[in-house]
Amino acid sequence: MRDACSVALQRVVDANPDLVIVVGGDAGRSTYGAGARGSFAGFGVAVTAALPGADADGSVAERDGDRGRDRLPLSLTIAAMLMERVGPWPSVRGEGLPTAMTPVDAVALGAEWADSAERVALIAMGDGAATLTVKAPGYLVEGAEQWQKLVTQALAEADVAAIKAITSTDADTFQAAGRVAWQVAAGAADPSGAERWVGELLADESPYGVAYLVAVWQRTST
């Protein structure tokens, strides 16, 4: 999974964006600058990670500076750890969003962020269904596997409409923490005019009864 993430993230770097926005679940809505840190100490591992890249003014963030003391949520801490494997990164900011955000608000926020710079890349962090087996964190919920297959297909094919149509009720039932991040991405990628999106699925695993997948969406012109 880490190798697949590295491939995906290197493609983000290679696309030469002006701004990279990393979005994931948080206790509330928060914004984090490059250099903001997170820790895995709560999981028994004394490892920290910091969002790489430059601040909005173009200066490279100091890992031990004031902004480096910001506490990233788990979703963005994992992103920071993965992003350290590739680079160099341009301007980066992290966005933490509550899992209760409505689909309409998530899509609208993505559309707003798409206009944040001339070339914007979005990294969406979030698990799929956590109810796929009896040993899953959410135990086994009937219909979870079928639902996740449809979501995975939509993410693999960059099916913007299908991602927008995911209901918060279904995501809550199957404990899919990534719903908000996916819909933010769908809002940011909503095609217009001659612009279209192609998707590629780089990894799809569920070793703990939780769906983990890596997909890349890239814009193409017809």
Please name the defining characteristics of this protein:
222 residues, Protocatechuate 4,5-dioxygenase, Chain B, four-stranded mixed β-sheet, two-stranded antiparallel sheet, 7 helices, 31% helix
If strands are numbered along the chain, what order do they take across the biggest sheet? 2-5-1-6
Low-confidence stretches: 60-69
Strand share of the residues? 15-25%
Distance between the termini: 32 Å
CATH superfamily: LigB-like
| Radius of gyration over all CA atoms, rounded | 17 Å
Helix content: 25-40%
Q: Which word captures the global form?
A: globular
Order of helices and strands: HEEEEHEHEHHHHEE
Shape-level CATH architecture: 3-Layer(aba) Sandwich
User: What's the total count of β strands?
Assistant: 8
CATH topology category name:
Protocatechuate 4,5-dioxygenase, Chain B
Just give the CATH class: Alpha Beta
Task: Please work out how many helical segments DSSP would assign.
Answer: 7
Q: For the report, how would you describe the main beta sheet?
A: 4 strands, mixed
Mean residue pLDDT: 91
Tally the structural domains. Answer: 1
Structural class: alpha/beta
Polypeptide structure, described:
It is a single chain. The protein is α/β, with parallel strands linked by helices. The protein has one domain: LigB-like (Protocatechuate 4,5-dioxygenase, Chain B). The chain is 31% helix and 23% strand. The protein contains 7 helices and 8 strands, in the order αββββαβαβααααββ. The strands form 3 sheets. The chain has a 4-stranded mixed β-sheet, with helices on both faces. Helix 3 packs across helix 7. The longest helix is centred in the first third of the chain and has 13 residues. The two termini are 32 Å apart.
